[in-house]
Design a protein that fits this description.
The chain is α/β, with parallel strands linked by helices. It has 13 helices and twelve strands.
């Protein structure tokens, strides 16, 4: 999957992942109304509204971007109906040719970690057949339990040719309370970055590893350091747009080849129709507003990379 993802980034010239993090406040009235008329004002109705909204976003942007990233918490809040909508969303996106990064942030040890890895990336042997659950292409994982919590995911990744993104330096303001703590004179996130690089050497694609890293756009100077520590890791960069990150902040997340990072925007794209600058699209054309937001993001990142003398 890492080779295909890198090829799609090159082909579309868009190191962009769209965060499919629906909320009812983002869903246009016509979609919500139709879902509630069919399923009632229930968890099932809300889940169906999420799914139909996601489909509309995907239809509008699938030819522009290589990947999407559904955040599982938005679906889990709706219980079983929400998780059905999550699974249907994964399938729909994959059918559209998109790489799916499940933002699940799992992290445990032993059989529990193995079960998480199997549920999201692998398959279960039942009656002599291998049956797949959510079946994303990549997922996010939390490294705080150490190698015991990562290696079960790596095992499944090797078997399935799939990948993980390890939390290294997250975009939230309080991340420094733990991640910036000095250990042997260096911040914790650097030590985690070194572990990601080492894990990645064991699971390489053609040029980049199946073991990537999550590094927030809100910390560009730290991103520059981590880029050097993890030269073969694809860096998933949250925090663009709504959290303050912009193209000029992102250059150092990329390698000299213009690759090495994929930048996430969630509500900045899926809720673009609610922004004043895209108001002309109106609620009915929420997909058109999302497409315009992707094109603007692509231009912003491309211009920043070009100004830095890196290929786009």
């Amino acid at each position: 999957m890492i080779n295909r993802l890198m090829e799609d980034i090159r082909k579309k010239q868009a190191p962009i992942v769209v965060g499919l993090d629906p909320m009812l406040a983002y869903v246009p009235e016509q979609i919500e109304k139709a879902a509630f008329e069919e399923f009632g004002e229930t968890l099932e109705g809300a889940a169906e509204a999420f799914y139909r909204f996601n489909c509309g976003i995907v239809d509008a942007v699938a030819d522009l971007v290589p990947a999407v990233k559904p955040q599982v918490a938005m679906y889990e809040q709706l219980g079983i109906p929400g998780m059905i909508a999550f699974e249907k969303t994964v399938r729909y996106c994959q059918a559209a040719g998109l790489t799916v990064i499940g933002d699940v942030k799992r992290g445990d040890i032993g059989s529990t970690s193995e079960a998480y890895a199997t549920g999201h990336l692998g398959g279960v042997e039942i009656g002599g057949k291998k049956l797949y659950g959510f079946n994303e292409d990549f997922i996010t994982v939390n490294p705080y339990l150490g190698s015991d919590g990562i290696r079960p995911f790596m095992k499944v990744c090797k078997e399935e040719k799939k990948g993980i993104f390890v939390l290294v330096k997250t975009s939230n303001p309080s991340s420094g309370e733990l991640q910036d703590r000095l250990i042997d004179g260096r911040p914790l996130y650097e030590h985690v970055g070194e572990m990601v690089a080492a894990w990645g050497e064991e699971l390489m694609g053609d040029a980049y590893s199946y073991v990537g890293a999550v590094v927030g756009a809100t910390y560009p100077e730290m991103g520059a350091v981590l880029r050097k520590i993890m030269p073969k890791a694809l860096i998933l960069v949250p925090g663009y747009g709504a959290q303050g990150g912009k193209g000029a902040d992102l250059v150092n997340f990329f390698n000299e080849d213009g690759l090495g990072a994929i930048v996430n925007s969630s509500r900045g794209i899926i809720a673009a129709w609610k922004q004043e600058k895209y108001a002309s699209f109106g609620e009915a054309d929420f997909g058109g507003a999302a497409r315009a937001a992707v094109l603007e993001m692509k231009e912003d990142i491309g211009s920043a990379l070009a100004a830095a003398g890196r290929p786009v």
